[in-house]
Design brief:
mainly beta, four-stranded antiparallel beta sheet, 12 strands, 0% helix, globular
Length: 171
């Protein structure tokens, strides 16, 4: 039998709807679909404790829409971030424990805008963005997100209208 234990000391507020969970170091990041906020829980000897001081939400509502996916950030990213969040229009939110969130808009493909982004992932050198209505996975060099993306699939593109997520593994 599996002995399930609450991970968050004191539990989660009842109004939280967790869409995504990312583990990074000794922290858990949880994307709340109701408030479009990323919560951070830090590990202690008793379990995880919600960090009331961590702020990761669209602070510019007219520019950044509801968040739909999160990824671990990096101290090497520009700007440095603990966590990255994405909205359906290609806005990236950079969140750190020691600063207010900042954002950057991904360069859309030539002569069009994103249809409706669904998810994103990264590997060492690239950021991959899933756009099911456009039947596309857009690829950005990780060090230049303002560059126009290229399509991941070139000869044959499988139907992706029902795709909900993507992942990378090495090459």
């Amino acid at each position: 039998r599996v002995d399930y234990q609450p991970a968050i000391i004191g539990g989660m507020p009842a109004n939280i709807k967790v869409l995504r969970i990312v583990s990074s170091g000794d922290s858990l990041y949880l994307l709340d679909g109701n408030t479009s906020t990323v919560l951070r829980a830090s590990y202690t000897a008793q379990g995880y404790v919600l960090d009331a001081d961590f702020q990761c939400f669209p602070n510019t509502p007219s520019q950044v829409g509801p968040l739909l996916d999160i990824l671990p950030g990096s101290s090497n990213s520009e700007p440095p971030a603990d966590i990255l969040a994405l909205d359906p229009k290609g806005n990236l939110l950079y969140c750190s424990s020691d600063s207010m969130p900042s954002h950057q808009t991904l360069q859309p493909p030539a002569a069009r805008s994103f249809a409706a982004l669904q998810a994103f992932t990264q590997d060492f050198n690239y950021l991959y963005v899933l756009d099911p209505p456009a039947n596309a996975v857009w690829v950005y060099p990780a060090n230049n997100l303002s560059q126009e993306p290229r399509l991941y699939f070139d000869e044959y593109t499988p139907p992706m209208q029902d795709t909900i997520d993507l992942a990378t593994a090495s090459d």
